[in-house]
């Protein structure tokens, strides 16, 4: 593919901004390309189906919501994160599309093999750093002069933020995201071979008047073991498994063998502290129930039945006479 056909990250951001503000419409773009013939590049293999891309988009829409909540609380200001695009392309093309000097974090996703790359636009990165240091969120791009303290502060912020990956992916697989390294020049990070297909999910991040992109790059080789789980048929099979009557029967069997404390209450009474202090052996306490009235049977301190005392094979026993209706039970029936 000719290099002039590849947009830089700044051009992509400008295009997305024009679409969101209405300065440029999708119909205008379609009209411009209507008469153009698109050449198929066999080097740019499409290894993910549209269905799998949609599944990855839904996962990262959930991640965007989690990041919005986390970063808003961490930075003590309103942060808006949203998914703008999800596309598959060669790794080499992704590297050429981002800035030469940017914030790059390499993540390990145990138990998946390989690494994921997160690129954070310097404008939004410095706006976050300014908020961490007590500022208003002003962005000053000085990535070539990044100090060790600033680097550590940013690493700690993103380390806690991208722990949200675990919750976002939990419906597919349990992962343990772990930050491996930091780099500012994408040329020094050879995550996979240049022609390896990667999925790039772009998250538009807004903090006050500052906006920028967070790009999540996941190689195909990392997702390969779980690709079958990114299909609708997998979700349908999972739902059927959860509704399996055998599972319900096993749960019911376990519940039937659970033990509950049963109390047969003869009655109760109230006395003063003075009367209590004067009690002695042989004294009688009058209960609030007549000898002919049924006893209250409680299950874990909740009244459930009426009963009467007796004996079964020389053992004390209680015979259930009736149910105690709870409030609202008759209405429900």
Question: How does this structure look, described?
Answer:
Mean pLDDT is 81; it is low at 328-333. This protein has a 6-stranded antiparallel beta sheet. It contains 12 helices and 10 strands. It has helices at 9-21, 26-33, 50-75, 91-97, 122-132, 148-161, 164-169, 220-223, 232-242, 245-256, 273-277, 329-332; strands at residues 79-90, 103-110, 115-120, 176-183, 197-207, 210-219, 262-265, 295-299, 302-312, 315-323. It holds the Pfam family FliM.
Can I get a quick summary?
Its main location: other. The protein is an alpha+beta fold and 333 residues long. Helix content is 36%, strand content 25%.
Which SSEs are present, and which pair or pack?
Layout: H1 9-21, H2 26-33, H3 50-75, E1 79-90, H4 91-97, E2 103-110, E3 115-120, H5 122-132, H6 148-161, H7 164-169, E4 176-183, E5 197-207, E6 210-219, H8 220-223, H9 232-242, H10 245-256, E7 262-265, H11 273-277, E8 295-299, E9 302-312, E10 315-323, H12 329-332
Antiparallel strand pairs: 1-5, 2-3, 2-4, 3-6, 5-6, 7-8, 8-9, 9-10
Mean pLDDT: 81
Class by alpha and beta content: alpha+beta
- Element order: H for helix, E for strand: HHHEHEEHHHEEEHHHEHEEEH
CATH classification class of the largest domain? Alpha Beta
Q: Distance N terminus to C terminus?
A: 71 Å
- The proportion of residues in beta strands is 25-35%
The backbone outline, from C-alpha atoms, is elongated
CATH topology title of the largest domain: Chemotaxis protein chec
Number of helices: 12
Please mark out the parts with pLDDT under 50 across 5 or more consecutive residues, or reply none. Answer: 328-333
State the total count of DSSP E strands.
Answer: 10
- CATH superfamily label of the largest domain: CheC-like
Summarize the amount of helix as a percent range. 25-40%
Q: What composes the largest sheet?
A: 6 strands, antiparallel
Read across the widest sheet, the strand sequence of neighbours is 1-5-6-3-2-4
CATH architecture of the largest domain: 3-Layer(aba) Sandwich
Counted up, domains total 2
Our Rg estimate from Cα atoms comes to 33 Å
Subcellular location: Bacterial flagellum basal body; Cell membrane
Pfam family, one: FliM
Protein name: Flagellar motor switch protein FliM
Keywords: Bacterial flagellum, Cell membrane, Cell projection, Chemotaxis, Cilium, Flagellar rotation, Flagellum, Membrane
